[in-house]
Amino acid sequence: MPITDSPILFSTGALYGLPYGAALRLAARAGCDGVELVLDPWSLAAGAAMVRRRAVQLGVPVRVLHPSLFGLPGWKRQPEAFRRLGQWAMELECDLIVVHPPRFDDLADNIRAFDTGLEALRKVTGSVVPVAIENSAIFHPRDRRHPFVWPDKVADFARERGLGLTLDTTHVASTGLSLLEAYRSVSDILCHLHLSDFRAPVSWLDRPGLDTYVKHHQMPGQGEMDFDPFFLRLREDGYSGAVTLEVSPVALGIWWPPTATARLAKAREWVRRRLLPDEPPD
Predict the structure, then answer these.
(1) Kindly report the CA angle at 155 between 247 and 102, in degrees rounded to 5?
(2) pLDDT band at residue 1 under the 50/70/90 scheme
(3) Going by DSSP bridges, is the β-strand pair 164-168/62-66 parallel, antiparallel, or unpaired?
(4) Cis ω for the linkage preceding 79 (within 30 of 0)
(5) Beta carbons of 53 and 20 less than 8 angstroms apart
(6) pLDDT at 202 over 90
(7) What does the alpha-carbon distance between residue 215 and residue 205 come to, in Å, rounded to a whole number?
(8) What is the pLDDT of residues 54-83, one digit of tens each?
(9) Tens of pLDDT along 125-139?
(10) How far is 39 from 68, CA to CA, in rounded Å?
(11) What CA–CA distance (Å, rounded) separates 26 from 34?
(12) 32, 57, 160, 219 - which has most CB atoms within 10 Å?
């Protein structure tokens, strides 16, 4: 049984490129309630049925499905990409599909493609599996001009299409907004959290191409973000959606499995304490 109403999951994206079983075993050793599966060549080669069977065997079922971090053959264009995502979600029997918002370049065309893909996905799932859209991050100053880095704009886009919202905490931090400020604009459709911290690295590592690894997606409680008021508000509002620990492979220390296991287990406990009102934070 989950230790709170909100299952605490591990994103397999931290081990992207390694056989998917490595991420499942890490999640199991750390005591996570399940995983958010980020599709990659290894999982696609195995197939949804095999991935689901292995995840259930290890006690970390796939609760959330996430597209690949990189373009893969057959997954680059709509509506085929979303149609295949829906097929995987049905075979995995997962609770939620997370999708990214339309890309900023040629935004109008990308929105049309997104809507075409969403229609195809819903035909596959029969709307049985809900879909949530995730807020994007700022990497370059020019990104601030684009709508989907701002949680309120993503929420408006989601409401128009009957979608939920996945709030990525480190992406919020990249905009300079506070978590509470972001939460106020999305609370009515918030159904899932991507949880990680934000920390400015030393100057010689502070490069947009490295942000995902050394600036965004740090271990929760190890960065600059003030999470306690945010979790207090979540508890007050009765939030019960999943919380996915979506952390960088560098922050997790994946090159040494005992370290990665210890850090993930500590992060899971850190989240658990903040979700349960009767247990004070560390």
Answers:
(1) 70
(2) very low
(3) unpaired
(4) yes
(5) no
(6) no
(7) 9
(8) 999 999 999 999 999 888 888 989 999 999
(9) 998 999 999 999 999
(10) 5
(11) 11
(12) 32
Q: Which amino acid is at 13?
A: G
Instruction: Say if residue 4's pLDDT is above 60.
Output: no
Quote the CA–CA distance of 206 and 156 in Å, as a whole number.
32
- Are 241 and 195 contacting, i.e. CB atoms less than 8 angstroms apart? no
| Residue 52 banded pLDDT, cuts 50, 70, 90 | very high
Residues 188, 14, 146, 224: what is their CA dihedral angle, to the nearest 10 degrees? 80
Distance from the Cα of residue 55 to its chain's centroid: 18
Q: CB count, 10 Å around CB of 127?
A: 12
Structure tokens at 174: 């990249």
Q: What SS3 state is found at 126? A: coil
SS (H, E, C) the chain: CCCCCCCEEEEHHHHCCCCHHHHHHHHHHCCCCEEEEECCHHHHHHCHHHHHHHHHHHCCCEEEEECCCCCCCCCCCCCHHHHHHHHHHHHHCCCEEEECCCCCCCHHHHHHHHHHHHHHHHHHHCCCCCEEEECCCCCCHHHHHCHHHCHHHHHHHHHHCCCEEEEEHHHHHHHCCCHHHHHHHHCCCEEEEEECECCCCCHHHCCHHHHHHHCCCECCCCCCCCCHHHHHHHHHCCCCCEEEECCCHHHHCCCCHHHHHHHHHHHHHHHHHHHCCCCCCC
Q: How far is CA 13 from the centre of its chain?
A: 9
Locus of tokens 């100057």 = 203
